[in-house]
């Protein structure tokens, strides 16, 4: 049996559903049967999602390669799902109906309308109840995995050491955050600029402008880029002429190239160290399950 990865574990149930009724057995995992019908159902679901994301045609050579990957992934998924759900039952884990309902509603909110969600269920081959059961399994697995990680209470020195040893993770490029107003007439642009310099709120003119957010060099036209990257935080400049017209630019934040000070990103460092800690703990747990589980594949022979 192939060793599991943390990434696989975290996504185990993305395409899972209700277990198939008894039929042809493809594997026995710690004495529990895994059915071919469930394998085939999940392969079809994953094929649908991959085709949507990657525009895969399974009749092409490339599509056949993808199909082999999908089939291998589903076999691995089914085996590990069976093992982990055995662990869930061993610990008699459960989650509240309220938590399941909340997660089910969150899943629906990912779609613009209720009809879009129902269309997804139909195409993916789920009933609403099957999808809710899938969410239930996800929550049970989350609870199981949370049990396998100990308390995370790093000392400040540990956080600082992690920051220093992984500074490349926090390297950032030069960026500015800006808004701009755009006018066809230069005199109008000058008039608005004077009003802003006299105390008018830049945002009051945003009907003529746009929020640009954060961006780096090489994004904007050259005249605009030259102006905006020469500006200080909280500075207003204009009119700046480009092929689009006359701009009044407001830079409301700057991010200089380099590595932020530890104090400025301490919370992010703590989060990253926690993720590393959790992954190490879970890898030990998965390795234990890998070494103690028995998997037998059933060869059904020629049809």
Describe this entry's structure for a reader:
- With 303 residues, the protein is an alpha+beta fold.
- The protein has two domains: 6-151 and 272-297, Orthogonal Bundle (Triger factor/SurA peptide-binding fold); 173-255, Chitinase A, domain 3 (Roll), CATH 3.10.50.40.
- The chain is built from ten helices and seven strands.
- It has helices at residues 6-10, 36-54, 61-90, 97-108, 114-124, 128-147, 156-165, 186-197, 222-228, 266-292; strands at residues 25-29, 32-35, 175-183, 209-215, 235-242, 245-255, 295-297.
- The strands form two sheets. It has a four-stranded antiparallel β-sheet with strand order 4-3-6-5, with helices on both faces. A three-stranded antiparallel β-sheet has the order 2-1-7.
- The chain starts with 5 loop residues before the first helix and ends in a 6-residue tail after the last strand.
- Residues 1-21 have low confidence and may be disordered.
The CATH topology of the largest domain: Triger factor/SurA peptide-binding fold
Q: How many strands?
A: 7
CATH evolutionary superfamily of the largest domain: Porin chaperone SurA, peptide-binding domain
Our count of domains comes out at: 2
Structural class: alpha+beta
Please outline what is shown here.
The strands form two sheets. The protein has a four-stranded antiparallel β-sheet with strand order 4-3-6-5, with helices on both faces. The protein has a three-stranded antiparallel β-sheet with strand order 2-1-7. The chain has ten helices and seven strands.
